[in-house]
Amino acid sequence: MKKNLSYTGSGFVAVLLFIASFSCQSLVETPEGISTPQNFYTTVAQCEAAYAGSMNALFVEWGGYQNIPAFPDGQFEGASLDIAATSFNDLWSWHYKAIANVNAVLKAVKQGSLAGNSQDDIDKVIGQGRFLRAFNYFTLVRLYGKIPYITEDTPDPVSTPLTPASRLEIAKVYDLLEADLTFAAEHLGDLDAASGKPNKWIAKGYLAKVYLTRATAPLNQTENYAKARDVANDVIANGPYDLLPSFQDVFKTSNNHSKEVMFAFHSSPQTPYMPGNAWAPSEMDGWSGGPVKIYWASNIYPEQPRKHNYLLLDFTSDIYDPSAPIINWSKSADGVPYIGKYNMPNLTYDQQVGGGDAGIEMKLLRFADILLIYAEAANMAGNGPTQLAVDRLNRIIDRANAGTGKEARATLSMTKAQFDQKVIDERSYELCFENDRYFDVLRKRILQQVNLPDNAQGYDENDYLLPIPALDAKAIGQNPGY
Q: In whole numbers, what is the pLDDT of the chain averaged over residues?
């Protein structure tokens, strides 16, 4: 029907060639000064630098997740379920490139490159790599379903090409990434506030997220609700993270690395953040990136103080004129709301209009998410909400209301279904535009629902998986419908 096949030259084959470049062991000589995986990853610092570099495939200026993927999650204006065979192809190649870089380090370490270091230090290096690998595969399996799970032990893909049989069943992929996360949680250390390195609490946070996802579609392995509840509770009760008292502080660039942010893309001078005006409306000298779906902002998101910080609804009619009146989005030149998380007042004026590095920390996992995971999992693991699940959900709602009572609190009298819906709605409001909502839409099987009334044209069940890039699909097979 709507899915028109087209050919692309990027993706998995290029990644396989990248991996293969590390597999040649039969060189006659290695000229002095030439770095290879075997002679470079000989210190912990070198391995960690390579891990940081692996994230460059996902987060670069003008690319990767700095250009927020406009998934059809019911929150991005203009997003559509008319998904073509080339839609979102870049995500496939981003994540497999990151995995290739991680696996190169893990392979070198397994071959003894860190010999002479303590076993504890070696285990921590391995734990960081296995966490990052699981992080990437967790995204891939949710978007593409059956995928190859390439590790440091995968045979050379040049001499042993991948085939359709290389795509593992979804449950098997989860088993493998769960094992990676479990190893990381057991061997990584506590929070090191001076660095952005993964720690055991971040690994546990993602493990809770994995269990929750396994409990829902497409696997529906409901025994994992209890596992998600227990791991999330461990992070909440024993970890070093917490909610900031005010939602107004969460996205301020001055609060990057706050106690609420567990894992994020961190910038460096070599990889600056996007300019602030990339996400702003025309009146703020913006480039009109990331418009918010009007129906969702106007009819679904509850009218409360948080809404006016996380969404940009009212803004200056001329950012260069201090006396210019404030206008509503409906009176603006673009005629749409924008993402408040990435605009003033979360940015300074200079960051907003300067056209340079805006310092916007792209958050990947927040403590608020862990509270919401606990609430959902505790409710679904039993016969309805517990008092602790209600209390933890209400921590999010009370902060959002800021004393106004605009949004109704959760109560113990809610049914299991009512409380579950309350949690999913709250995830939509609190975690909007943080690359999270689409995955909730997929696992709760509400893709058509959230795109009504105007963006669901062409919907069918195949839309729950994205297309594999055509060049790679020739080798390993394509998802249905493309």
A: 91
